[in-house]
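Review form for a predicted model. The reviewer records the input and the model, then writes brief findings.
Reviewer: anonymous (R2)
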Amino acid sequence: MNTIHTTDQSFQKDVLEASKPVLVDFWADWCPPCKRISPILDEIANEITDISVCKIDIVANPECMRTYDVKGLPTLLFFVNGSIVGRKVGALSKAQILDFITQSTTQSQQSE
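Model under review:
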């Protein structure tokens, strides 16, 4: 499995210093929509090798949740070169997540 389970302690290395774009899923065990998109994100992590997919449990890692102003779950943040270029909140279909990745990647390339 290519999904990375990151923590408050490893977020800097796993996400902010990553050599490729990173899709981060902020989730919690008690969140049914989070559980619904988890296998979709695992599929995407295995299918798209030019991005990383990270998951961070907000209960065990509240610091990142506060730092990135996560108010609803699941929250997906897309990072390029350590900066947020996209944000989505709520359970999305695989097609919607893939579209979000494409839009975020395109947006980051246009701003370079």
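Findings: The chain has one domain: 4-110.
Further findings: The domain at 4-110 is CATH 3.40.30.10 (Glutaredoxin).
Recommendation: see findings above.
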